[in-house]
Amino acid sequence: MNIMFFLFSLASTLFRTPISTLSRSCLSSQHYFRLFSMAAKNPHHHLEENGGATTVMAADILNRHNSSSCKKRKLFDIDVRSEFSHHDPAVARINNGSFGSCPSSVIEAQQRYQLRFLEQPDDFYFNHLKPSILRSREAIKTLINADHVDEISIVDNATTAAAIVLQQVKWSFFESKFNPGDTAVMLHYAYGAVKKSVEAYVTRAGGQVIEVKMPFPVASNHEIITAFRNALEVGKSNNRKVRLAIIDHITSMPSVVIPVKELVKMCREEGVDRIFVDAAHAIGSIRVDVKEIGADFYTSNLHKWLFCPPSIAFLHCRTPELSNLHHPVVSHEYGNGLAIESSWIGTRDYSAQLVVPEALEFVNRFEGGIDGIMKWNHQKVIEMADMLAKSWGTNLGTPPDMCSSMAMVGLPACLEIMSDSDGLKLRSHLREFFKVEVPIYYRQPKVGEVNPVTGYARISHQIYNIVDDYYRLRDAINNLVNSGFTCKVFHD
Ligand SMILES: Cc1ncc(COP(=O)(O)O)c(C=O)c1O
Ligand SMILES: *[C@@H]1O[C@H](CO)[C@@H](O)[C@H](O)[C@H]1NC(C)=O
Ligand SMILES: *[C@@H]1O[C@H](CO)[C@@H](O)[C@H](O)[C@H]1NC(C)=O
Ligand SMILES: CC(=O)N[C@H]1CO[C@H](CO)[C@@H](O)[C@@H]1O
């Protein structure tokens, strides 16, 4: 972005903000209590600085609790806005779960890496690329409590990580380690792209797939654990073996936090060969401890909730020396272990993979770092979901402890959402006429259900969201309800 434009938008935010908004934000946006040491620091750090932990200044801590330091907190507000000033200000996109977000300090760091490469590609390749990727892997290792950096590979996205694991399963069928008809168990709500990958690699290699029918709305972990146990029983029937379990940590649609630790334990007890946790949404939105979870493979994107640019994901492998995993695109490093294979798959832009330390530096400017952000987003998304459900006379799709930084809120039954297509069209309608971006889940009603809630909005909360974003959604829906709108209008 043009630097003048950047400065201009900063200044306009600074001067055009009405006084009433200023005082309101002091009262209502308590979240800026949580942001500190931002204004005092120069966000334009350099590559040479190795991204050590940001030190917290005593004055900032004091100011957090100082109710008369309104002006200072307001600066924090502006700081957050300037970090995200490239976002379209006209849209209340409470859909940060889908594509994530990247602050400008991290984008700038990424651009410095890109320039470094273009300035002197050979120098970058021979002297900087590998150590920089290693630095990102080290940071991820610490973040997810892995034992050794060899367990961490960086790949483009969760879909690629799934392909890596599933191709290995495919080879086990081809090399007769697995028998035709052996099974893979996965949730019915597994991510669409991952389901297609299972079809492409597992089904086609002779495996059978058992889908776990999960209830939604869901009342407790217990319901999921029971459904999973039943699916494992089916998977083992007729002398078959369950070779693979694919477990989402947070399902995408509907969004539900799955009790992975319990399910992994159950799989181990039942002798499941390999356990893959698809945690595309997890890092930065819920606590991740790969040792505690104990799966064989665990992947998460860093571009969804950890403020990295698109796209970067890690794949954690518990026993890298035994697992024989390979990057789906074979290049020079084939056979040198997945982490090394993945770190050079040819000439391309690796910059998104290099800025993990800068993204962590960004989150460390907040009270409590990433844990503080997770706690804050979770608390706020529940608060916003409750507010919406109360206004619409509906309920949440899950109890709060099964929400991450996303929550499912029932939409009024009178909207008559009758299909996936209705949900998609209502979403477009909200975008077009109300400038709200929110994904909508369609749930098939049970037979005989009276006035069923068939639509759920998946709302996200990220640090820059304000309550007005959710009021916009609330009012848009109430407006539709009051005007007698139903999804039938989409059918003509
Ligand atoms: C559960 C789950 N798995 C996989 C993915 C795919 O992630 P990507 O598009 O980054 O490969 C997503 C993305 O939303 C997801 O929610
Ligand atoms: C609180 O903020 C005011 C105004 O910024 C300042 O004068 C005062 O010293 C602060 N008090 C503490 C305890 O930091
Ligand atoms: C995921 O990564 C692969 C390469 O590893 C790339 O081809 C694909 O476009 C990426 N998909 C998404 C959704 O980013
Ligand atoms: C990437 C994305 O959708 N970001 C949006 C998250 O929500 C805020 C507040 O509504 C928007 O300003 C961002 O554009």
What would you say about this model in short?
The chain is an alpha/beta fold and 492 residues long.
Topology (SSEs and partners):
Blueprint: H1 3-16, H2 19-28, H3 58-64, H4 70-83, E1 92-93, H5 96-99, H6 104-119, H7 121-143, E2 152-155, H8 158-174, E3 183-187, H9 192-203, E4 208-212, H10 221-236, E5 242-248, H11 260-269, E6 274-278, H12 290-293, E7 297-301, E8 313-317, H13 320-323, H14 338-343, H15 356-363, H16 369-392, E9 406-410, H17 420-434, E10 436-437, E11 440-442, E12 455-460, H18 467-482
Helix pairs in contact: 2-4, 6-7, 8-9, 10-11, 16-18
The structure holds pyridoxal-5'-phosphate and 2-acetamido-2-deoxy-beta-D-glucopyranose (3 copies).
What would your notes on this structure say?
It contains 18 helices and 12 strands. By secondary structure, the protein is an alpha/beta fold. Among the domains are: 1-83, no CATH class; 114-360, Type I PLP-dependent aspartate aminotransferase-like (Major domain) (Aspartate Aminotransferase, domain 2). The strands form 3 sheets. The chain has a 7-stranded mixed beta sheet, sandwiched between helices. The chain has a 3-stranded antiparallel beta sheet with strand order 9-12-11. Helix 12 (290-293) links the parallel strand 6 (274-278) and strand 7. Helix 8 packs parallel to helix 9 and helix 16 runs parallel beside helix 18. The radius of gyration is 24 Å and the shape is globular. The chain binds pyridoxal-5'-phosphate and 2-acetamido-2-deoxy-beta-D-glucopyranose (3 copies). Residues 156-157, 159-160, 311 line the site of one 2-acetamido-2-deoxy-beta-D-glucopyranose.
